[in-house]
Amino acid sequence: MKKALIIGGSGFVGGYLAAELLDAGYGLTLTTTGETDTNIDWNWVKLDILDGEAIGRLLREGAYDCVFHLAAQSSAAVSWKKPALTIDVNVQGTLRLLEALRGMEKPPRLLLIGSSEEYGAVTPAQCPLREDTPCHPGNPYAVSKLCAEELSLLYAKAYGLDILCTRSFNHVGPRQKEGFVLSDFCRQIALLERSEGEKTLSVGNLSAKRDFSDVRDVVRAYRLLMEKGQSGRVYNVGSGRAIAVYELLERLLALSEADIKISTDPEKLRPVDVPLHVADVSALRADTLWENEIPLETTLRDTLAYWRAQVQGE
Ligand code: A2R
Questions:
Q1: CA distance 190 to 184
Q2: Structural domains for the chain
Q3: What percent of the chain has a predicted confidence (pLDDT) above 90?
Q4: 107-111, 147-151, 267-271: which range is least confident on average?
């Protein structure tokens, strides 16, 4: 049985990745900075990624075959408010992990999870974005992710480490936190469905087109990359299809019986919003035979159902 470690297992993606790996027969350990007595069926370890000694100990004692590095300050919006924390966790944390790996006799394979935010301001003519498209990160989170990726590729080359990286496009689904567009829409709709009087949903820029995938498809791509991906390379993970945010909203509203109006909130408009981000996923497909399987309709229904359950009692 292959032994896997998920660093940052307690977040949105970690839970889905854990289920994917357990289903595929992996032995699994997950890290959290918080309490380890929740989800008692799973093997939790407490870890702060900034504690280099603790990472080294965990890797040596666990003798893992593979490590999925998910731990991050994962919000671009928060990164404007907390740039130092973002750089600490995303860059310094990754560096601590790389240092621990290079000190090992038989280091495990590492999959570093990056973000499409690394591409930043690109023109529609550059889409679909290939992994060799120049990156122009437009917020501290994007800078931190690109820096972590560059460090990882450098360590892979310099020290012969077995590392591969993703640039993951928008992934969505039940349990994603507020502050991400689909969760925000679903939560508002669920609350409005329970409210009296006029129902108005507040939105930001609806014209931006993004590449949305279901998180359950995304974690399958992570497992397949770990099993079949080429060492030392970066892979886009996305659907390869762009959908306008207004279309996402229209399709969600069609799933609700409530009569909901839309109003634009200037606070939610970004000073610079890139009109189109869509992935070229030919490398991921060629190397892993991965395809998106879950239709967007299913993702929208499941996420709205999750938020309807969440807001009960609010
Ligand atoms: O604090 P916890 O137990 O919630 O752990 C979070 C972990 N994390 C850390 N782990 C170790 N040391 C730290 N100093 C530290 N700070 C945060 O990162 C949690 O398990 C995870 C982040 O979860 P989410 O915010 O829900 O991110 P999500 O959506 O699961 O994204 C996974 C990856 C990230 O690298 C994103 O940047 C990328 O996918 O898009």
A1: 10
A2: 3-172+213-240+284-288 (3.40.50.720), 181-209+242-275+294-313 (3.90.25.10)
A3: 88
A4: 267-271
